[in-house]
Design a protein that fits this description.
Elements: H1 2-12, H2 16-35, H3 41-60, H4 62-81, H5 86-105, H6 107-112, H7 119-138, H8 149-154, H9 162-170, H10 172-175, H11 183-190, H12 208-228, H13 240-243, H14 247-279, E1 285-286, E2 294-295, H15 304-308, H16 316-319, H17 322-336, H18 345-359, H19 363-389, H20 394-421, H21 424-433, H22 437-451
Antiparallel strand pairs: 1-2
């Protein structure tokens, strides 16, 4: 069996541990499909716990499950005994434990060398544990006027039982790579309430076609990745030949390296999407069209064309790692913005810093997410100019739209080198090779934004009552 695994791994260019993970990851699709036939809510919770634990054991070994138990226990104890402050306590305890695992395992180095561990699954679990605790703490707030729409929708009045909590954390369809979701949605889905309540007049929609679409998309993404990666290896950035290329050749290679790497993530999220859809959990209601069509947005973690053809950097968090971006918006960004105020660069930078720490403490991650904050802020400046001239000069507005598109391509693919190579030395070497253009350009736009300030649109005066 081991020889067969080695032969199969060699044929697709991965290590045996990575192949074992991929097989278990793909197995989440049939396992999630069988979830639909478990007869009771309690049975479905138990099924979620057992299948999640078994698949993670087969993927990462026994120690991974022990690592999952620790933040789950800490979060649940805080909810039981320190409800008023359970959200903030779980946030720092959860991230503290995740950081310690990042430092201990140095997973980024292991992944680059063909190894794998449970840190990626622990990252997803940490966000679930934190959001559950924060929502339970929000359940104490009596004045709903001070709550955001997300807080009103997801806050928990009653503490979930241990089996509900464990099922939520370890549900196999989302355990490995997300998407992150809310406890309230998980409970309604498991108990077949809300949009999952089926009647003779309103049967559950069939998930087969959207599942098949996600599987086909996954196959295409993996095929493209396997084809491209030998042509654009990351090792080229430290190759003397790369340093002899022209400026534009280096920029092109940076673009192709980022483009190639993204297909790996598209594959992972497509498999996860298929798993969540086929379980029924991906269903988010019916469209307003006639006849109405089922929507499966909860499972969607990436919009491939939305990323590759993004008109501005501001759109990227809406189409890349969508559910984690939503989590960061609800549980970090919005909670740092004072009521009645608009968020600014500092809130954006703090949110991106949390995202960087969540990924790991490698310098490449930190640099990438600081770069992301600059990238988004610079793109906002261009967009404000575009909006200011849209009604006056269509040609200039279209030109600015093109500038924003090209700016996004340049800065995104320049910045993501740090995310891929991880080390400070390699990141700075790649940035230096193109004269730090992807850092300088956003700063220039930010400075120009403080000089060239478009006039605010004049609000029409309210008509006086006669």
């Amino acid at each position: 069996m081991e020889l067969q695994m080695e032969a199969m791994a060699a044929s697709i260019g991965v290590s045996v541990p990575v192949l074992r993970f991929l097989l278990c990851f793909v197995a989440t699709i049939p396992v999630s499909f069988l979830w639909r036939f478990v007869p009771s809510a309690l049975g479905r919770h138990l099924y979620a716990v057992l299948t999640g634990a078994v698949l993670s054991y087969l993927s990462f070994g026994f120690s991974s499950n022990l690592h999952f138990i620790i933040p789950m226990t800490i979060g649940y104890l805080f909810m039981l005994f320190f409800r008023k402050h359970c959200g903030i306590l779980t946030f720092f305890a959860g991230f503290g434990y995740l950081i310690s695992c990042h430092v201990y395992y140095m997973s980024g180095d292991a992944w680059k060398e063909g190894g794998i561990d449970g840190t990626g699954a622990l990252m997803v679990l940490t966000l679930k544990v934190i959001s559950c605790a924060i929502n339970y703490g929000d359940g104490l707030i009596k004045d709903e006027e001070g709550l955001s729409e997300a807080q009103k929708k997801y806050r928990l009045i009653k503490c979930p039982s241990i089996i509900e909590y464990c099922g939520y954390c370890l549900c196999c369809g989302t355990h490995f790579a997300g998407p992150v979701y809310e406890m309230k949605d998980y409970l309604d889905w498991t108990e077949r309430k809300g949009i999952w309540a089926c009647t003779k007049d309103k049967p559950a929609p069939s998930p087969l076609l959207p599942t098949l679409r996600a599987i086909v998309q996954a196959g295409v993404c993996m095929g493209l990745y396997l084809y491209l990666v030998p042509h654009f290896p990351l090792s080229r950035f430290s190759d003397p030949e790369y340093q002899n290329w022209s400026f534009w050749h280096k920029l092109f290679y940076q673009y192709m390296s980022g483009f190639t790497a993204r297909w790996k993530y598209y594959f992972i999220w497509s498999i996860s999407e298929a798993s969540v859809i086929i379980s029924g959990f991906g269903f988010t209601g019916w469209s307003d069209s006639s006849p109405p069509k089922p929507k499966w947005e909860r499972a969607k973690n990436v919009d491939v064309l939305g990323v590759e053809l993004a008109q501005s950097s501001v759109q990227l968090p809406l189409v890349w790692n969508i559910q984690v971006s939503t989590w960061l918006r609800h549980y970090v960004y919005e909670r740092l913005v004072k009521k009645g105020k608009k968020g600014g660069f500092l809130q954006l930078l703090a949110t991106q810093t949390v995202s960087a720490i969540w990924h790991g403490l490698y310098p490449g991650y930190i640099i990438f997410f600081v770069q992301s904050a600059l990238m988004i802020a610079g793109s906002k400046v261009i967009y404000r100019w575009q909006q200011a001239v849209a009604s006056k000069n269509a040609v200039l507005a279209n030109l600015l739209a093109l500038v924003n598109f090209l700016y996004t391509i340049l800065v995104l693919n320049y910045s993501c080198i740090g995310f891929m190579v991880l080390s400070l030395e390699e990141t700075l070497a790649s940035y230096r090779s193109v004269h730090f253009v992807g850092t300088i350009v956003p700063i220039v736009f930010l400075l120009l934004g403080n000089i060239i300030k478009p006039a605010r649109p004049v609000k029409p005066k309210a008509r006086k009552a006669e």
